[in-house]
Amino acid sequence: MITLTRINGRTVVVNAELIKFVESTPDTMLTLVSGDHFMVRESVEDVVERAVEHARRVRAFQVV
After folding, report:
1. Mean pLDDT in consecutive groups of 10 residues from the start of the chain, 64 residues
2. Which of 13, 18, 21, 49 gives a 20 to 30 Å CA spacing to 36?
């Protein structure tokens, strides 16, 4: 899960593994695999960085 900020300033926690794509329109728009979409204050680069870091943390606990 990653914490982001909606345009209105409210915090939202998103399951990073459900993000289908992120685009700049010029605001940052997230589209989830469910088809839901919403805008956040963070940049595309910041969202990607948080999602990658989340994936690293999750995979660090997997037993090989």
Report:
1. 97 96 95 96 97 90 66
2. 49
Q: Return the half-sphere exposure (C-beta side, CA atoms, 13 A cut-off) of residue 6.
A: 8
Cβ 40 vs Cβ 28: under 8 Å: yes
- Contact residues for 5 (Cβ-Cβ < 8 A; gap 6+): 11, 12, 40, 41, 42
What are the residue ranges spanned by the domains of the chain?
Answer: 2-60
By DSSP bridging, strand 11-14 and strand 28-32 are unpaired
pTM of the shown model: 0.86
Sequence-ordered alpha helix ranges (H) in 1-64: 44-60
Q: How many CB atoms are closer than 10 A to CB 49?
A: 13
